[in-house]
Amino acid sequence: MAARLRQTRDTWARFLDAPIFATLAHLLERLPPDRFPGHDELNALAPPTLASGSGAPIRFVPPAPPPREVCAQYEVRIFETGEVQTRPDDWHDLFNALVWLAFPKTKAVLNSHHYREICARRGERSRGTARDVLTLFDEGGVVVALSDSRLAALMRDFRWKELFWTRRADVLRSMRFCVFGHAIYEKALEPYKGVTAKALILEVEPALLEASWARQLPELDTRAAEHFRGTGALASTQGLPPLPVLGVPGWEPANECGEYYEDRTQFRPGRMLSS
């Protein structure tokens, strides 16, 4: 147990220093320093306004038997009761809870969509494209805020070295990468080449990128929620371009060298979309 506690404490400290966890840093620093938080401690971090897609107050609760219900029942329970089943001492579920706290509006919109899709397709074997999009972003999404549309074009065209190396200074100045997907956070515990996210690209004013994180995050949450309320947001899984996570400047020490971006197993070329 002592070794487990030391590992957890060291991990919290590593989180606070790692840019990939920056979106959650204000929450991580409020967790118990030497163990996983309990349900009561997670609930204490939730503001009264935190609610599911139906408006039910969110509460983090132990999982009902069996240990994890099927996804459909899980989302329905959140929508109807606000109860987010959270396994104790589980990284995946802890990060999911923290994302609910960091992106409350977006998570509520995704939950509402899940509920409607589940009800509409009850009895069908296929969950459908809409739920595929929802799951891909919920598990593996990154909100990319940028103030230069030319950088967005490079992303959509898979021109990774030009974006992350040739235009590195522009990326650092004019882009922010905010991890949303709780599975991406879990993979970041032991990052490996090939971790790929689904990017929601939001064009913003330069002033927002210069604002404090406390100002940026609520605005990006609002903008992401507005995107997923849109009629075309769930039409295709191709609407969210891929993002090789370890290519983001500063997220991997090895990417301080231009040759890093020549690895085609990680930075795969793709179809040109913007031309």
Offer a few descriptive terms.
two-stranded parallel sheet, four-stranded mixed beta sheet, 275 residues, disordered N terminus, 6 strands, 13 helices, globular, single chain, alpha/beta
Could you give a quick summary of the protein structure above?
The protein is α/β, with parallel strands linked by helices and 275 residues long. The protein contains 13 helices and six strands.
Question: How is the secondary structure organized here?
Answer:
Blueprint: H1 2-17, H2 25-28, H3 39-45, E1 59-61, H4 71-81, E2 83-85, H5 91-102, H6 104-120, H7 128-140, E3 141-146, H8 149-156, H9 160-166, H10 168-174, E4 175-179, H11 182-188, E5 196-203, H12 206-210, H13 213-229, E6 242-244
Structure write-up:
By secondary structure, this protein is of the alpha/beta class. 48% of the residues lie in helices and 10% in strands. It has 13 helices and six strands. The chain has helices spanning 2-17, 25-28, 39-45, 71-81, 91-102, 104-120, 128-140, 149-156, 160-166, 168-174, 182-188, 206-210, 213-229; strands at 59-61, 83-85, 141-146, 175-179, 196-203, 242-244. The strands form two sheets. A four-stranded mixed β-sheet has the order 4-3-5-6. Strand 1, helix 4 (71-81) and strand 2 (83-85) form a beta-alpha-beta unit. Helix 5 crosses helix 11 (182-188), helix 6 (104-120) runs antiparallel to helix 7 and helix 6 runs parallel beside helix 13. The longest helix has 17 residues, at 104-120. The protein is globular, with a radius of gyration of 19 Å. Mean pLDDT is 90; it is low at 1-6.
